[in-house]
């Protein structure tokens, strides 16, 4: 697709996609086993792992070995080339520029967010959706036949694309302000200073990124689009069989409306199967609201695990 194939909000300047998120883990073999079981196309490149979805050419994430606990290294956002000068001016005016991360590919603009996490703004094709994602096509069921497949013939669940990433932050309102004023993201919904969801001005899912309050920064979960609620449930079973039976779901969120199942990874964060998330077109003013906590997490599903919003990446300060 060319730049002209994607609608854009007139006069808006801002990132259009999560181009890549990059983190490090103690052992790449564990990471390979987890994400392969999850249904991603895991490729080893120059001593690290790149995460793809089958049938899509884009690399969504990179994982490096560190020998120490998991750590979010940096986040790369995709931007349109003609918007780079305005973004550069925003960065320079606020004194946010930083050196490129040692693990990063060359190019783009570099800055730090208020939590100190390095960000790369790089010219790249828009990989966030331009319209609401469609359900997977299903073969018609003949009269007299059951619609469910037999268990032995269930197809492996393979996510179609990265939907969004949720990060920890010690200051949610500060992050909303930064993302709005510097990155050009727009607030979708929030719940006080507990959690916030932000979408791209040029059209994206209900959230490209989200932020949950914690004692420090970090990666809470990556969310991956699948084609049906049945695939959400089948993904949960797929991971249980592979030995990854801890998580949360199946359920349905309120903010974003997607059906979900979260699988806990070996490092205490999560990967989410997501289906039917709300979409915010480039020409729509989403009615952002501040929701009470009881109306901000889920409509139905099992109880939230006690450690679901625990940041294992940063040690909490002791009194």
Automatic annotation (TrEMBL):
Residues 132-152 are annotated as: Disordered. Residues 14-124, 161-276 form the VOC domain. This is VOC family protein. It comes from Ramlibacter aurantiacus. InterPro entries: Glyas_Bleomycin-R_OHBP_Dase, Glyas_Fos-R_dOase_dom, VOC_core. It comes from the Bacteria. Pfam families: Glyoxalase (PF00903).
